[in-house]
Amino acid sequence: MRKEYAMKDATLVYTKDELGYAALLEEMKHAREVIIITYNISEKQNRLLSCLKSTPEDCDISIITNIPGRWETYYGDKYRAQAHQKIQVYMTKLSPKEFGKRASTYFNFDNHGKIIMTDSSIYIGSENFSEESAKNIEFGIISKDLDFIALIKKELIPDIMAQSIPYYEYDYTELLLEANMLMAAFFSAHNELVDEIYLFDDDWRGNSKYYNDKYDLLSNSSLSKLGTITDDCLSVANEMTDALAEIFGEDSPKYTQACRQFERLEVMATQIENLISEDSIVKLADFNVENHIHYLLETDYAMEAYEEELDYYVGLASDRASSKLYELCEGAHQDLDSLLEQSNLFYTLYGKIISLFSGQQLKKVSPTIDNT
What we know:
8-stranded mixed beta sheet
C-alpha cells in the first residue's frame, strides 16, 4: 500500500540529544486533540506520557503503538515470558483510564511509523514517542498546515485505526452513563407533566393532590419532551440489550431476560406515543384561556362589547372560556391518567434494564493483545 500527500508550510528538523517534536509537547497543554503513532514507548520513563495526562479534560487522545518483542509465534518459554512481561508493561502504561475519559489506545503489530500531532501541529519523522529517542540522531518534518493536518486526520488515521486492535474489545461505561442521564431526564419530564396535570395543596391534613380542571397548564412542550426522551431511552435500552449479547452471548439467560424486558419497554413506548397524540390530550394542550377570551370578544361579542359594556362581555367570555377549559380537562382526564401510569411503568422497567446492565463487567481488554 502506498499513499502520498503534498504539503506546505513545513520545517525539516534534525536532532541529537533532544526531541524533535518538543514544541508539540507544550501545545498538548491546550490541545483539543492529540494523536500519537509510534513504534514503541519508553518502558522505564514516564515524562512523555505525563504530557498526555496534562492535556485538558475534554481533549481527545489516541495512541497507536506496536509492542517490540511481541511475536506471532514463540519458540520457547523464555521468549514467551519476556514478551508477556513487555506486553504487561505496555498494557499498564497505556491503559486509557490513565489519561482520562476520552482516551483511546490501539495496538498495531505491523506499525513502524511515527506521527505526533495535535489539532494545530504535526510531526512526521523517525522519532518514537519515547524518551530514549532523544539520544539518537533523528530527522522529521513539523508542519502547521491545517489543511494537511485535517487530511491526515481524515484519510490516514482512520485507515491505521481500522487495522489496529483497540485496547478494549468492548467498553460500555459511556453507554451506562448515557442511560443514567436519560433516566434522570425522563424522571424530570414525567414530574413536569404531573405538575401540569395535578395541583397540590398543603393543609392541616398534609399534602393533597387533585386533578387540575381550572388552569390551562398542560403544554405541548412538556408532552413533546416526554415523547422525545422516551424514544431516546428506548434507543439506549436497545443498545444495552445488544451489549449484553456481546458480553454473555445470545444464548445466555441474562440476554434472554433483557430481550423480554426490552420488548415490554417497546410496547410501553408505543402506548406513551399514542396517548400523547390522543385527540383529547392534543386539544387540551392546544387550548389557551386568554386566546379563547380574545377570540370570543372578536367574534361572538364584537358588536356588543363597546366601552360601557366591555367589562360585562369580558366576564361572559371569561366564563365561557373557563367552561370550555373544564370540558376539555374532563375529556382528557382518563387519557392523562393513563399517560402518567404508562410513564411510571416505563420508568420502572427502564431502571430494571439499567440495573441488569450495570451489574455486568462493562469493559473487556482485547484478548488478542497478549498472545503469550
